[in-house]
Amino acid sequence: ASGRAHGRLAALCLRFGMVEKARRQLTLAGNTNQSDPAEWHKLHEVESHLGKCMDARRIGDWKSALREADAAIANGADSSQLLLAMRSESLLRLNKLEDADSTITGLLKLDSASLSSMSTKLSGMVADSYVHVVQAQVNMAFGRFDAAIAIAEKARAIDPANAEVGLILNNMRLVARARAQGNDLFKAGKFAEASIAYGEGLKHESSNPVLYCNRAACWSKLGRWAKAVEDCNEALRIQPSYTKALLRRAASYAKLERWADCVRDYEVLRKELPGDTEVAESLFHAQVALKTTRGEEVSNMKFGGEVEIVTSIEQVRAAIHSPGVTVLYFMATMNQQCAQITPSVDALCSECPSVNFLKVI
């Protein structure tokens, strides 16, 4: 019974990533001839992958760090806050912000008591402080500046002697201050000064998508559309799903009359924001402009939203030969099936205002 209890404790310690404690418990189980070889194998695998993850992190090889963290988690350390933090940091450095955020969110649901008992250090940081630092950096990347600073302050309180933690906290404060100054200047209509303030923030954190997107807004207000596109490109390189940056880039492409690029961005936005009529209308106008530059007929193209009634064969022929996408809906008088489907057609028309819906009666 004692051996089985030690075995269960070993498995629990391994789940938390507490390799040394797991080893001690397995050794005690072995003294009673009840040590499980499979658990020893898991321990060696977790220990090996954890060490490789730390080595990869040390040299900035984030793909390898992520691979090794995932392998350690898969081999049993699935409740290790340290490994989950290393996974989140690796994802953050690889510009997979949503995955980094979901990983750190899952980590916070776990009991942190195991961290305080771990002797492991990363870059000289104690494990508990390191987890807080990663959490702060993820919050910073998403523009949650106040939360990031509060969490970094907790990391500093846990590990006050660590120079790197102090440097990270000070850097975050400088970035947050630059962003606040930029926001105030932007609200005051001082767009050139605001762009400089956001640029100061980027000097301290060159991979913050929020600052790039905010500076792009300044360039737009100043009519510097090419600069706006450049900053939106940077924001989207770091965070590909950043909708606000995509909206600003699409609008800037329109001002630059880069219609193919403009249409491409608005098509992506149309899928992400299917109920946004402003995006639908912008896409329609960009499509018209693109067709015009190609010498295509656009005189009959219109931005819809309502089903148009057609009563003559001439109107049907004109619709068939008109540019753009046209849906012909043939309606039989007093037909119950037609009456039942009409609300669905009307709803589809509202959702797809760039498509011509014609009811033939």
From TrEMBL:
List the source organism.
Aegilops tauschii subsp. strangulata (Goatgrass)
Q: Give any Gene Ontology cellular component.
A: cytoplasm
Keyword ATP-binding attributed = no
PROSITE patterns reported in the protein's UniProt record: TPR
Task: Give residue ranges of the TPR repeats.
Answer: 209-242
Q: Which SMART domains match?
A: TPR
Keyword hit for Repeat: no
- PANTHER family in the cross-refs: OS05G0587300 PROTEIN, TPR REPEAT-CONTAINING THIOREDOXIN
Protein name in the entry: Thioredoxin domain-containing protein
- Secretion signal: which residues? none
Could you tell me the keywords of this UniProt record?
TPR repeat
Which InterPro entries does the record cross-reference, listed alphabetically?
A: TPR-like_helical_dom_sf, TPR_rpt, TTL1-4
